[in-house]
Amino acid sequence: MSVLSRPEFHNEQAAYDYVEARIWPDGPICPHCGGYDRIGKMGGKSTRIGTYKCYQCRKPFTVKVGTIFESSHVKMNIWLQAIYLMCASKKGISSNQLHRTLGVTLKTAWFMSHRIREAMRNDDFTNFGAGGGIVEVDETFIGREPNMPKKSAWHHKCKIVSLVDRDTGQAKSVVVDDLKVSTLAPILLNNIAKDARIFTDEARHYPQIARQFADHQHVKHRVKEYVRGEVHTNTIEGYFSIFKRGMKGVYQHCSKRHLHRYAAEFEFRYNNRAANGASDLVRADIALQAVVGKRLKYAC
C-alpha cells in the first residue's frame, strides 16, 4: 500500500492525533502557561478539531500553537503531506509542484515550504571529528549577491561553507558574506573538535585556521590532484552536487535572504538519509518533532 494512503494524510482528526503523539508524547502541555495537570479536551459541534482547555490559565489551545502550524488555516493532514513530500524528495520539491499536488494556492505552498525548512534548520554547534576523525571542509557558490559587481568568477555569488564528518556522515552548512579567515574561523572552531583531522582543497583561507586542529591535509585541484591516499574532498563534493542539482534543477532561483533555509533543507535530508538509517517516514517524523518554537511569520 502507498505510504500516502495512511489515515493521517487524509483525515484531519487522524492527523491531529498523529502530531499530538509526537509533540506531546506524555500528554498535552499548555503552550501558554506550561501546565499539564488540569487540561481537558473540548467537544461540541462548533469546537475546532484538536482544541484543549487549560484550567490553570483558562486558555484554549491546540497542538498548532507555538509551532510552524500556528495561525495557518491549512488542514493538518495537508501539512503532513507537505512535510512528507519535502522530506522524501532528495533534491527538493518546488512550491509550484506543492501547489498543484496539495491543491493550495501558490502563495500558501511557498509559505508552507519555508515554514517546513525552518523546522529542518538546526543552528546548534556540533563536534565533528571528535576522537581524531576526518572532517572535510569546502565552500561553494550559487546565485548572486544583491548589488554586488562581478569582479571574479565567484566574488559576486552567494557563498556557503560546509563541513562533512566522514565517520558520522553528518554535514553542516553556513551561508557567509565572505571567505575571510576572520569569518570562517568561528565556524570551524565552534563545530570541529580540536583533535580532528581537516581535509580541504588548496584554498588559501584554510591553512591559518587549520593550525588549531590536530592535522591539516589538502589536495591540489589546480594541478588535477583529487585523491592522495585517504586525502580528498570527494565526500563534500558529492554533498554539493546534490545541493546544486536541487537548487538549479528544482528551485532554479533563490535570493540570499532565504538561502540559509534552503541550505538547511539539504543538510537535514543528508544528515537523515537512508545510509544513516532514516527512511522517508522516519525523516518526516524527525522534521515533525522539530516544529515547536519554530514559528515563521510571512515578513521573515
| Strand order in the sheet with the most strands | 6-5-4-7-8
Radius of gyration: 22 Å
Helix and strand string, N-terminal first? HEEEHHHEEEHEHEEEHHH
Sequence stretches where pLDDT stays below 50 over 5 or more residues: none
Report what the structure shows.
- With 300 residues, the chain is an alpha+beta fold.
- The protein has a domain at 134-254: Nucleotidyltransferase, domain 5 (2-Layer Sandwich).
- 35% of the residues lie in helices and 15% in strands.
- The chain has 9 helices and 10 strands.
- Strands 6-5-4-7-8 form a 5-stranded mixed β-sheet, with helices on both faces. The chain has a 3-stranded antiparallel β-sheet with strand order 1-2-3, with no helix packed on it. A two-stranded antiparallel sheet has the order 9-10.
- Strand 5 and strand 6 (170-176) form a beta hairpin.
- The longest helix has 18 residues, at 234-251.
- The mean pLDDT is 93.
Brief synopsis:
The chain has 300 residues and is α+β, with helices and mostly antiparallel strands. The protein has helices at residues 12-23, 76-88, 95-102, 106-120, 181-191, 207-210, 234-251, 256-271, 280-288, and strands spanning 39-41, 52-54, 60-61, 134-142, 158-165, 170-176, 197-200, 215-218, 227-228, 231-232.
Secondary-structure blueprint of this entry?
Blueprint: H1 12-23, E1 39-41, E2 52-54, E3 60-61, H2 76-88, H3 95-102, H4 106-120, E4 134-142, E5 158-165, E6 170-176, H5 181-191, E7 197-200, H6 207-210, E8 215-218, E9 227-228, E10 231-232, H7 234-251, H8 256-271, H9 280-288
Parallel strand pairs: 4-7, 7-8
Antiparallel strand pairs: 1-2, 2-3, 4-5, 5-6, 9-10
